[in-house]
Amino acid sequence: MFKWHKLGKVFTPQDVKGRTWLKEFAQAPATLLFDDFVRVYFSCRPLADENGQYISHSAYVDLDRVNLFKVRQVSKQPILSLGGLGEFDEFGTYPVSVIRHGVEVRAYYAGWTRCESVPFNVAIGMATSVDAGKTFIKHGNGPILSYSPDEPFVLSGPKIRRFNNIWYLWYIAGRKWKLVAGRAEPVYKIRMASSSDGIHWHKQNKDLIESRLEDDEAQASPDVFYAHGKYHMFFCYRYSCDYRGKDNGYRIGYASSVNLIDWLRDDSKAGIDVSEQGWDAEMISYPHVFELDGQIYLAYLGNQVGRHGFGLAVLDGKLG
Amino acid sequence: MKWKKLGKIFDPTQHSLPNDCVQFAQSPQALVFEDFIRIYFSTRAIDKSNGKFLSHIAFVDMKKNLRDIIGVSEKTVIPLGGLGCFDEHGIFPMNVMRHDNVVYGYTCGWNRRVSVSVDTAIGLAISHDDGLTFQRIGDGPVLAASAYEPFLVGDGFVKVIGGIFHMWYIFGKGWKSFAIDAVPDRVYKIGHATSSDGINWLKEADGQIITDRLGEDESQALPTVIDIDNRYYMFFCYRQSYDFRQNKQRGYRIGHAWSNDLVNWTRDDQNPLLDVTPGAWDSDMLCYPHVFESDGKVYLLYNGNEFGRYGFGLAELEID
Question: Taking the C-alpha atoms of A167, A172, A174 and A180 in order, what is their torsion angle to the nearest 10 degrees?
C-alpha cells in the first residue's frame, strides 16, 4: 500500500491577479520538469457568463524546484487558444497533459463544445510548443482522437505517456448520458490507445478499470507511471448521481498492471482519502504522480473539483 | 453519355409513413432485389419539444419498371440514436450496400449544437432481414472529425472494389457568416477513405478530391460512384454556400467527375449533364444524386426543388 503524506494546497487561482480568464478553478494538474522549477499545467475558468455557463482555459504555474510552495510565476496568457466557430474546442480546453518530444513539448488536451440535448461534448486534440511549453500550436483544427462505435461521446481527460518507444494515451470515454432529476450527467470509463507517432492512434477498445461503486461509476484522470517492474495507475472515481457533494463525490483509486492492458484495481492501496476538514475534506480527484529529486509526489484536487486550487502529497517510503 | 429524365417517381405526401413523417423524401438510395427495387430515403418528423425537424429513414418498394409502387415501409427502419449520440437528431442519408449476405447501412447522423446548428458523423448499421430493419454496430460513428477535417463528416457512399472498402464522403471546411447578422453557413467538400473491414477507416491524407467549380466557397455533397467499362464515374451535388435555399441561381446542381484509378478525378459537369427543367418539379434545384444499375441499365435517383420536400425523380443514362 502507498502512504501519502499531505503537504497542503499549493496553488490558489483566486490569488492570481490581472487575468480575466483565470478567476477560479485550477484543475487537472500535470507537470513538466525544468532545471530549477516545476511547471504545473492546469485548467481554469473566467467567471461564468450571464447564463451561468463556463469556458475553460489551460495555463501553467511555475513552482520553485527547491520549495514547491513558492510560486515563481503564472502564465500571462492561456497556453492554447479556443477553437473557432463549430470546432470541437470552441468552448474549452480542459484538461491538458504534456510530454517532451525532442526539443518540443507536446500537449494533449480535451476540447469542449456545447450541444443542444446534452450540455457538452468533448474530443481530444494535440498541440506542439517550441518555446519550452509556454505556448502551443494546434495540430489541425480538429481532434486527433474522436468518437467511434464503442466510444460514442465525451473523449476527455487525456494523459500522454511513452514507454519503450510507443506512445500511450490514457483517456476517458463516455458510456451514457444518465438523466438525473432532468439533468443529463455523463458516465465515463477509463480507456487507452497506442501509437507509433503520437498522432495516429489505435484504440484498445476496452474498459481498463473494473467499476466498483456501481455499474454507472464514472472514472477519470488515469495517471500511469512505471516503477519496480510494473505499471501503476492512480485515477479518480465517483457515483453517477449527486456527486457534487461529499458522499458521492470523487475519491482516488489505484490499479496496477504488468502489460498496460490488464489492470488489477485495488483502491485500498491508494493510500489517500479526504481530510477531516479543510480544502480537501469533501472530495479528492484528478491525481497526478511525478518524481522529483528522489521524492514521489501526488498532485490532486480537493473540494468542488479544484475550484480553489490543487495540493500536493509526498510518498512516505518507497513505491509498492 | 446523356441523361434521359424519367420524371418524379415518388411523392411522400401521398403515403402514410412511419414515425409520423409527412414531408420530404431526400437522398434516395437503391437496394436492388431480383424482382423489385427498395429505395431508402430520409423523411422528416417534427420534434415536439422544439418544433425542429428530425430526419428518419424510410423506404418505398417499387417494381423494376420504377413506375409502380408496391408499398412503403410500415415500421421504423432504424431508430434515432440515444441521448447525446451523434445521430440523436436525424439520419440523413443512409447508403445501403450488400456484403457477406447482409446489408450494410452507412448512416449520416445529425446532432444539434449551440454555436452552430449541427454536427454530423458517419455510422454503420447492419440488416439481417434484407433491409427491413437495421441495427447499429455501436452507439458511436465509424468516421468522424479528425485534425484536418474538424466537423461535418457525412454523406458516406461505400463500394467494395477489389476487396477494399472505398468510402466517398463529405467533410466540413468551415463555418462562416457570409453576411452581417446571417446565421453561420457551412462549406463542405468531398473526401475519400479506405478500409479492409468497412469499420476501421483510413482517410486519404489530402482531403478534398474533387476540384471546385464555384471557387473555395463551393459546397459539394453526396458523392455516388459507379463503374462502367473500366472507368469510374462520380456524381454529386454542389452549390454556393450562402443564399442557396431560395435563390435558384445559387442552389444545388448535379456535378460529375471521372477517374480511371480511383485516385485522380477529372471534373466534367457537362458530360453527362443533368440540368434543371423549367416549369417542372426540378426547375430550381437538383440535389442528392444516387447512381445504380438494374437489369443492365444505369439510373440516377435525385431530388428536385426544395431539397426533396415533395419527393424524388429518376433519370436513365443513355450510353453512346
Answer: -170
pTM: 0.96
Q: Does B85 sit within 8 Å of A85, measured CB to CB?
A: no
CB contact under 8 A, A142 and B151: yes
> Residue A146: which of B123, B136, B145 has the nearest Cβ?
B145
Could you tell me which chain A residue has the CA closest to the CA of B149? A142
Under DSSP, is residue B225 helix (H, G, I), strand (E, B) or coil? strand
The Cα–Cα gap between A205 and A189 comes to 11
CA–CA gap between residue A97 and residue A104 (Å, rounded): 14
Residue A195 forms contact with B (CB below 8 Å): no
Are A270 and A252 spatial neighbours (Cβ–Cβ below 8 Å)?
Answer: yes
Torsions phi, psi for A183 (to 5 deg): -110, 135
Cα B176 to Cα B183: distance, rounded to the nearest angstrom: 8
Q: What's the angle, vertex CA B158, arms to CA B293 and CA B44, rounded to 5?
A: 85
ipTM of this predicted structure: 0.94
- Cell, residue A244: 457534487
Q: Which three cell numbers stand for residue A33?
A: 520538469
Residue of chain A nearest B125, judged by CA positions: A149
Give yes or no for a cis peptide into A78 (omega within 30° of 0): no
d(C-alpha B312, C-alpha B104), whole Å:
23
Q: What is the pLDDT of residues B238-293, one digit of tens each?
A: 999 989 988 989 999 999 999 999 999 999 999 999 999 999 999 999 999 999 99
Alpha carbons A176 and A280: distance in angstroms, whole number = 29
Contacts of B249 (CB under 8 A, 6+ apart): none
Give the nearest partner residue to A177 out of B83, B123, B174, using CB atoms. Answer: B83
Residue B277 CB burial class (10 angstroms; 0-12, 13-18, ≥19): middle
The DSSP secondary-structure symbol of B184 reads P
Interface test with B, best of A112, A126, A148, A187 (most B CBs within 10 A): A148
Cα separation values, A193 from A145, A159, A204, A206, A240, Å = 9, 11, 5, 10, 25
Mind listing the pLDDT tens digit for each residue in A4-50? 999 999 999 999 999 999 999 999 999 999 999 999 999 999 999 99
Residue B197's SS3 state is: coil
Q: Is B216 on the interface with A (CB under 8 A)?
A: no
Q: Which helix (H) or strand (E) holds A305?
A: helix A303-306
Phi, then psi, of A210 in degrees rounded to 5: -60, 140
Residue corresponding to grid cell 461509476: A217
The reply to whether residue B145 touches residue A143, judged by beta carbons under 8 angstroms, is yes
